[in-house]
Batch of 2 targets.
Target 1
Amino acid sequence: MSLLDRRTVLIAGVAVTLAGCGDSKETGSTSTPGATAPTSTTPPPSTTVPTTTPSSTPSTSAPTLTSTAPNWNTFASSLKGRVYLPSTSGYAAAHQLFNPRWDSVRPTAVVKAANPADVQKAINFARTNKLVLVPKSGGHSYVGASTIANGLQLDVGALKDMSYANGVLTVGAGARLYDVHAFLDRYGRSLPTGTCPTVGVAGLTLGGGMGIHTRTYGLTCDRVVSMSVITADGKAHNVSASAESDLFAALRGSGGGNLGVVTSFQFATIPATKLGFFRLAWPESQAAAVVRGWQKFAQSAPTTAWGNLHIDAKSNGTLSIRVLGVSTTGDATAAAAQLESFVGVKASDRTLSVKSHLEAVRYLGGGTTSPRQGFLAGSDVLKGPMDAATITGLLGAVKAAARAGTPASAILDPLGGQASKEPAGGSLWPWRGALAVVQWYSSAQGKPAQTFIANGHRAVRSSSAGGYVNYLETGRAVSSYYGGNVAKLQAAKKKYDPTNFFHTPYTLS
Ligand SMILES: Cc1cc2nc3c(=O)[nH]c(=O)nc-3n(C[C@H](O)[C@H](O)[C@H](O)COP(=O)(O)OP(=O)(O)OC[C@H]3O[C@@H](n4cnc5c(N)ncnc54)[C@H](O)[C@@H]3O)c2cc1C
């Protein structure tokens, strides 16, 4: 491979020479998909979160482990992909995540892998040079876990090839959700996923993956039939229910960045059917009744029915109370009526519609792409229905934010149905028996957002079993994301990453 560009850069006080790997790689014009500002400005109407501005000081960092200057020239020459050092043209875009609050975290280098062999080489290089390595797929980590100061960010975004045969999707770990849906739509197929079009399939799947199909078909991770993963020793594994089933089950729910770098997934797809939608809204005076009724709906609606409850602080100090519902039967009339009967009060605003698979994907995602957003968020997994005092506390937490002028939402996603069942092949996603996940979300900066999230946690403490690993928070015990599966996950970590190579404040140990 020819070395077409050389420039001297200073990294960690050591002057090294950067060598690029080819003509097109030396222009520095390649942008990171999640780092560019897409055109859509429509706020997603569902589990996705409002437009925001950057928030408080990032805490993503790793111990500085570099002892001698790594030989970047030799490493870069060995790759089909590309290495970005801080002085490389394109580094600024290459290291960005979806949330701009992590822009100030500057990895020692960004490696954009072009194939699984590059992933292996990057892991081996980082291990040899005692660099902490974090994988990045879609870059949507809530805590910036896919970037790292004094470490190597391994971007698998270019591994996004897809193929489909006999109901099974094979997809590279770097694919984004909209691209997956658009591809599957050609075959009349779909996949249960989250709604944000730019979320990466890898991060979403490894942490579970909740969305409108959760109750009918389970979590995204439940549909995985096999995965190709490269572990800390640089070895490639193809794991499934019948091959290294302990690693397979652990990857299905442990969250990204813990046990290895997944390079591709095989998923059992679902039919891409038309979907019935409802949107129901009530005045704030009915808020407690709506929460009670929604809890009954989450407990006893048919598995074809799903609906998430949004309690939003409005800028005038009041609350907006609404449920966005979906029926996989194609008609949401009965589901909407059932929810209204559980609430005991007719909705003040009511819309029903039917959408094709791809129309639904675009509607839920606010388009085909999503602009970068700054936010602070957290979660609680609800063990079961909240009692009256807890509901009052939850509503009070959002109301306090509304009164303080803090943009804030509590978004409650139901579990149950197929998500309550252990999938074939096993999974260590810990919340099979839970009722719902409540997300505390704020676009505010610093303290106001932190206060809202802390108030939310406090309000539902008696009903909370822990947190959802795809909604990581700083300062929270890692074990709180794993419920009763902590010991099993730690055993898998010890077996497949005995030196704790994949190590950040958010990983298992
Ligand atoms: C706007 C928005 C909407 C969202 N909507 C939903 C939703 O509807 N449902 C839902 O369940 N979640 C949702 N999420 C949460 C989302 O699922 C998680 O943030 C997820 O981890 C993001 O995956 P990613 O690949 O985009 O992120 P990344 O930041 O790239 O990765 C997340 C974690 O996985 C690791 N990782 C990345 N790639 C790999 C790999 N190939 N192998 C191993 N580890 C890897 C990273 O190191 C990091 O720790 C949403 C997030 C945002 C920001």
Target 2
Amino acid sequence: MDAVVKNFPQTVVSERPTQKEAEDAIRVLLRWAGDDPQREGLLDTPARVAKAYRELFSGYDLNPEDVLGRTFEEVSGYDDMVLVRDIPFFSHCEHHMVPIIGKAHVAYLPKGRVLGLSKIARVVEIFGRRLQTQEAMTAQIANSIDETLRPRGVAVMLDAEHMCMAMRGVQKQGSSTLTTTFTGAFKADPAEQVRFMSMVRGR
Ligand SMILES: [Zn+2]
């Protein structure tokens, strides 16, 4: 687990297929589904899908540490919890390549310095735009903030619906999956976890 989580893998392959190879592959999938890639409505689809994939999987080209690394602000005196909740995210499960749609709640306990708040949402987005399991994504967000900001602790909760469950197989629409990762003071002190949970739920 640690090995997977620690190196925040970016692009895994050194040489990528060409745009044409990607479009050809999509034409194969269209035929596999039972349709005709040559019919008018589908002629531009391979190019569109390839372009959409570029965006949906752009997280492989981005390093969360670049976002986090230069953005510290010194704060005088504030050392209590900073929580950004209800960060919407879209990802894709690595098993079926269909969407995971959810919200992230990310908190940390500062040790002398804080992050620009938009940076946290940006980190969630970078990890979301890769093929994921929800468990790995939760740990990656927590560990990347933990290792770059070095706060007293990080708490991350993801609450998401997996389209692979909603649309196929058991077809459990509306069920959500909750995952949490705690580091530092959050991990050591259950009372801090409770405080995080109640702040996430508080309205
Ligand atoms: Zn899946």
